[in-house]
Fold this sequence. Notes:
By secondary structure, the protein is mainly alpha-helical. The chain has a domain at 30-93: Globins (Globin-like), CATH 1.10.490. The protein is built from five helices and no strands. It has helices spanning 28-32, 34-51, 66-77, 83-86, 90-97. α2 crosses α3. The mean pLDDT is 81.
Amino acid sequence: MSGHEVLPRHPAPRFKGFGACPPAPPTVYEWAGGQPAIERRPEAFYVHVLRDELLAPLSAGMPAEHAHHVAVWLGEVLGGPAAYTEGPGGYPHGAAVGVGKAPAYAG
């Protein structure tokens, strides 16, 4: 022998029941319950904001669909579909909406 021992080849490990690889872990978006569950978070948040005497003036004149837009953005950043980025206006529009606006109490 040449001094180099040839080791037997072993097949790649397989995970029982999963094929070659274990499933990818769920995203936070999936773990949270997907878009229906994500939609409820901003809705509940803004109900409280609009009832709070200190925070309500900051949201005066907020469009009715604002909570939905926040939910679409939140879903995307938590690993869901790119609906905010690919939607009407996406990030450039979302950023431009607040430019030059001041809270209602600042006027």
